[in-house]
């Protein structure tokens, strides 16, 4: 039994709890990426290897470019009715339970394990394994697997390398330390197929996505003395190209790659509210920028949901950016 809620749980505490419980639900965040999903799948695969019962909860469908991941076909939105009362719900890669979506059933806090690497994690679990200096939630999971003495199969290695390649932008972001490269080399030696992951995640765009990218770049604005680049994708643009939300993934990174740009933003004005994706080149902390408007994330990559017209979202974000030193 978990005695008290800990702001930080040790590796040993978490491993003891993983050994004690019989049944697990791995929970990924809405609009899942390769980190939230790869981390949950890696831990789930390792627990299944030692005879545990494992389910995967995710509100949204698995994105097309992540369907190659082992066990991805087991991810579901509905959970079985016969889950034991002491099922452990393992939230991967989210600073708050709200990131799992509104479809999540009510869960007692004593049955929650929070594994994450976000700066502003709210420590919502009974156990909180939050390692802020890790490049991905997947590498937090790897620490647990090593402490458990798990066999890292090629399937698990593929899931873990996917988390790293997702959150380092294919080894390009500043969180790509020597240690991250060493860990990645070990995962390749254990059977992770880097070539396949690269192809599936980064070179697997639909033609509609490329045309949508073209339109979003064509209407991009450069402001604040060239330090801020932003664009909007709306319902009409998605319709014009036969694209959907998944096809917007890379657009903000292109906006950020413009010479002299400190911050890029993409406003996604469809599906009701406005979703905003933010990227920073390292001078401005976009986690605190997003935090001003109810969102969060990392220093260089963050996001938020704005309730209101897109023009108001654009104005509110400009104010927040100026307040944070843009
Ligand atoms: P993306 O732009 O890829 O949707 O999100 C970038 C990062 O920002 C994600 O890795 C996630 O950590 C964070 N993020 C995005 N949206 C939200 C949000 O609404 N709330 C919080 N707390 N973090 C978010
Ligand atoms: Mn992550």
CATH superfamily of the largest domain: inorganic pyrophosphatase (n-terminal core)
Q: Within the CATH hierarchy, at the fold level, what is the topology of the largest domain?
A: inorganic pyrophosphatase (n-terminal core)
**Bound ligands:** guanosine-5'-monophosphate, manganese (II) ion
**N-to-C CA distance:** 48 Å
Give, in spatial order, the strands making up the sheet with the most strands: 3-2-1-4-5-6
Could you tell me the strand content as a percent range?
A: 15-25%
Quantity of strands, as a count: 12
CATH class type of the largest domain: Alpha Beta
Structural category is: alpha/beta
Helix fraction, binned, reads 25-40%
Cα-atom Rg, whole angstroms?
20 Å
For the largest beta-sheet, the strand count, sense and barrel status come to: 6 strands, parallel
Overall mean pLDDT stands at: 96
Order of SSEs: HEHEEEEEHHHHHEEHHEEHEEH
The structural domain count equals: 2
Architecture of the largest domain in CATH? Alpha-Beta Complex
Which residues form runs of ≥5 with pLDDT under 50?
Answer: none
